[in-house]
Every structure is written in C-alpha cells, then in structure tokens.
Write a structure and sequence with these properties.
The complex is a heterodimer of chains A (121) and B (77). With 121 residues, chain A is α/β, with parallel strands linked by helices. Chain A contains five helices and seven strands; from the N terminus they run H-E-E-E-H-E-H-E-E-H-H-E. Chain A has helices at 3-13, 30-41, 55-65, 83-92, 94-103; strands at residues 16-20, 22-23, 26-27, 46-50, 72-75, 78-81, 114-116. A five-stranded mixed sheet of chain A has the order 6-5-1-4-7, sandwiched between helices. Chain B is globular. Classes of the chains: A alpha/beta (121), B alpha+beta (77). Chain A binds chain B through residues 31, 66-69, 79-85, 88-89, and chain B through 46-47, 50-51, 54, 58, 61-62, 68-72.
C-alpha cells in the first residue's frame, strides 16, 4: 500500500489518530507531548503514529491533511487540529464533548493507547 | 528571523486585526508565538482559523525559517 493510502487509512479508521514526533513512551517534541497530554486528560483512545523515521511520512501527511505542522490530531477522520487547538479544546471541555459526539459517550471505556508504524512504500 | 517580517505578513493578511502580536519564544529566531484577533475568524472553526494564519505565513513555514509556531486566534465579537 502506498504511504499516502496507509496514512489515509489510519485517519479514516482510527477513532483518535495522533501523528506525532516520537511515540507515547518516547515523545520527541514538546508540542507532541502537549497534544498527547490533552488527549490523555480527556480520556481519548489514542492511536499514535510516529512521523520521524522517514521525512516522507511528514510530507505525505501534510499533503493529505493540508496542515503544515506536527502534531496533528484526527477524530473519526476529521482534523481536530494541532497542539494549540487540542490544548485549547481540552481546557474548555470542548474536546471531551467532541469525542463523545463522534465516538459515543463511552469513548473512554476501552481506552487503550496504540502505536501504528508506517511502512515506507 | 526577527519578528517584524512575520508581523508584516500577518498585517497584510489581517488588515482589520484588532490584536496582532508575534513573540520569539526562545530568542533563537525560529520558535514563535503568534496571536491574532480578527473579525475574519468569526464563525470559523479553530482549524479554519489556524489555516488562515498558516496561509499568511506559508513562505517562512515552507522554507524552514519557522521551526515552531504556536497560534492563538480570537474573534472580535
């Protein structure tokens, strides 16, 4: 599968996709950490994708999303934003409302962090 | 990069801004905090608001001048 298809599939299929620098256990950037912390605080079931292993990961992601910076958070296929927006939404409670609306009220019940690795095609 | 060229780009993109600030967060000339309040943001999602800021700063973002950009947008209502 092409890199772009892999990225699109993750965006479309994962309830909450976080494209970040590093992984949740080894975060390589302060902004990725801010987004991850905001999502964790809201109880989101995060699927993380590390964009650092290959520069093409980031290029293709930004080509798909039209968003120039990392991290990028998607909920059910929709771009929610980068670290600033996710943090702002978490602070106002809007993030939890958005998650409940998109994933159902019990979205946090099966909360589980996953990591998906992209394969250079 | 100094903050002035970024301020100029933002002023051109948001001539009606009621608040416009660019702060060099680290003093290194590549980590910036941008704050813009404009009536153009009214009714737009945060994603679309930030997209307008990214569009205004597309050149310094794409050539790597801006290493990190933090954005705070506000409507004016």
């Amino acid at each position: 599968m092409s890199l772009r298809d892999q990225i699109s599939e993750i965006i479309d299929n994962e309830p909450v996709a976080l494209f970040m620098k590093g992984t949740p256990t080894f975060v390589a950037c302060g902004n990725s950490q801010r987004a991850l912390t905001a999502l964790r605080t809201a109880g989101a079931p995060v699927t993380a994708v590390d964009i650092l292993p290959d520069p093409r990961f980031r290029q293709e992601l930004s080509a798909v999303s039209g968003w120039p910076t990392i991290p990028q958070v998607f909920v059910k296929g929709e771009l929610v934003g980068g670290a600033d927006i996710v943090e702002e939404l978490a602070a106002t409670g809007e993030l939890e409302r958005k998650l409940a609306e998109a994933l159902g009220e019990g979205y946090g019940d099966a909360r589980e962090e996953r990591v998906i690795a992209l394969a250079p095609a | 990069m100094a903050t002035e060229p970024l301020e100029t780009l933002l002023q051109q993109a948001f001539p009606d801004a009621t608040e416009l600030a660019v702060v060099d967060r680290t003093g290194g000339g590549d980590h910036f905090q941008v704050t813009v309040a404009s009536p153009r943001f009214e009714g737009l999602s945060l994603v679309d608001q930030h997209r307008l800021v990214y569009d205004a700063l597309a050149a310094p973002l794409s050539d790597g001048t801006i290493h990190e950009l933090r954005i705070k947008t506000k409507g004016t209502a």
